Amino acid sequence: MYVREYLQFAASANGIRKPRVRIAELIERTGLGREAHKVIGELSKGYRQRVGLAQALLHDPPVLILDEPTSGLDPNQLAEIRQLIQALGREKTVIFSTHIMQEVQAICDRVVIVDRGKLVADDPIDRLQRRLTGDSSLLVQFDRVVDERKLAAIVGVAGVTRGKSPHSYRLLLRAEADPRAEVFRFAVANDLVLLGLTREELSVEEVFRALTTAAP
Predict the structure, then answer these.
(1) CA-to-CA distance for 29 and 92, rounded, in angstroms?
(2) Among 176, 208, 214, which residue's Cα sits nearest to residue 99?
(3) Interval 65-117: pLDDT, tens
(4) CATH code for the part of the protein at 135-200
(5) Domain residue limits, the chain
(6) Claim: this prediction has a pTM higher than 0.85
(7) Under CATH, which architecture does the 3-108 domain have?
(8) C-alpha to C-alpha distance for 23 and 4, rounded to whole angstroms
(9) Is the sign of the CA dihedral 105, 110, 114, 119 positive or negative?
(10) Where in this chain does the entry annotate a coiled-coil region (predicted)?
(11) Are 31 and 80 in contact (CB under 8 A)?
(12) What is the DSSP letter of 203?
């Protein structure tokens, strides 16, 4: 079946009013313009994914559920499908299942993790990344030794420990704090060279492994 023919069939089955207008809109939006005259079986996997998205969007659902939408795509197709899903997510709720944690980190703003039938996490990504480490931390490095008491006095800093590198310090942050600008001003005020400033958080993959490899 041809792409446009398939979408016309799906529109008819869903009782879509003015199907030609809606199909034209979705073909343009999903980037199927050059492929609309082709047989679906002749398309690459990336374009077949686009056809599936166009079909799912025909009746403009408020919630879109996708199962492994980026599986098996090459890097270019992957980037294009990511952009399309992110654009859709600005207009409607998009739920998709995947085992590729890099995709979760690149696309999602909220994560649900199910392990052996049990819900083990349901959080926004930033909160999920702090879940196992408590408050996040900043790893800073200067060109010389700094009085830790002065670092601890920076607004938003809950505590200070020594880092592994020379003249480096781990600043433990208070909830929701982001004192990076204050650290920069501290360095300027004390005539210090700021050699490094890195926010430390677990990746989604690290959180997933920690939550799903625990003993049952």
Answers:
(1) 15
(2) 208
(3) 999 888 888 888 888 889 989 999 999 999 989 988 888 888 999 999 999 89
(4) 3.30.70.1560
(5) 3-108, 135-200
(6) no
(7) 3-Layer(aba) Sandwich (3.40)
(8) 8
(9) positive
(10) none
(11) yes
(12) -
